[in-house]
């Protein structure tokens, strides 16, 4: 596991401890698999990996773990890819944007709070109550442009 992955797992442990949440072995393993997939991981890929380690794993096992990780800000869903990526900053779990490289597949998380605020303000002006925001920007990352 990379140093960044170890850091993300340590943050997840600390967040769960602080909030009194249980990061069960299955939830932890699903999070580790997602952390190790910088371009995002699909639920059935997670299931395949988990089943290889634990033959009794079934789709509900994965989806319950994903729901827990999503609801506690430890991962994000990439809507356009139907995949999941680790959250690099759980404190900003609700105000984030994703940059997705169409060449290498890497996903970078941004926290442009001004953009988030402008979107909220524009929605309010229209009398619209926002329940969830997903901002995904597809393009080519700096490394792949070289």
TrEMBL record:
It is found in: Cytoplasm. InterPro entries: FUR (IPR002481), Fur_C (IPR043135), WH-like_DNA-bd_sf (IPR036388), WH_DNA-bd_sf (IPR036390). It holds the Pfam family FUR. GO terms for molecular function: DNA-binding transcription factor activity; transcription cis-regulatory region binding; zinc ion binding. Gene3D superfamilies: 3.30.1490.190, Winged helix-like DNA-binding domain superfamily/Winged helix DNA-binding domain. Keywords: Cytoplasm, DNA-binding, Iron, Metal-binding, Repressor, Transcription, Transcription regulation, Zinc. Its cofactor is Zn(2+). GO terms for biological process: negative regulation of DNA-templated transcription; regulation of secondary metabolite biosynthetic process. Its main location: cytoplasm. Binds 1 zinc ion per subunit. Zn(2+) binds at residues 101, 104, 141, 144. GO terms for cellular component: cytosol. PANTHER family: ZINC UPTAKE REGULATION PROTEIN (PTHR33202). Belongs to the Fur family. Homodimer. This is Ferric uptake regulation protein. It comes from Marinospirillum celere.
């Amino acid at each position: 596991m990379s140093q960044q992955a170890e850091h993300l797992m340590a943050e997840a442990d600390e967040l769960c401890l602080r909030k009194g949440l249980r990061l069960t072995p299955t939830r932890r393993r699903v999070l580790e698999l997602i952390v190790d997939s910088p371009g995002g991981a699909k639920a059935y890929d997670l299931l395949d990996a988990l089943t290889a380690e634990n033959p009794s794993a079934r789709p509900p096992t994965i989806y319950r773990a994903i729901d827990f990780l999503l609801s506690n800000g430890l991962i994000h869903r990439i809507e356009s890819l139907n995949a999941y990526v680790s959250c690099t900053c759980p404190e900003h779990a609700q105000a984030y944007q994703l940059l997705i490289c169409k060449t290498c597949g890497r996903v970078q998380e941004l926290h442009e709070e001004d953009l988030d605020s402008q979107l909220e303000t524009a929605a309010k002006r229209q009398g619209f109550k926002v329940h969830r925001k997903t901002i995904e920007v597809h393009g080519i990352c700096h490394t792949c442009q070289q």
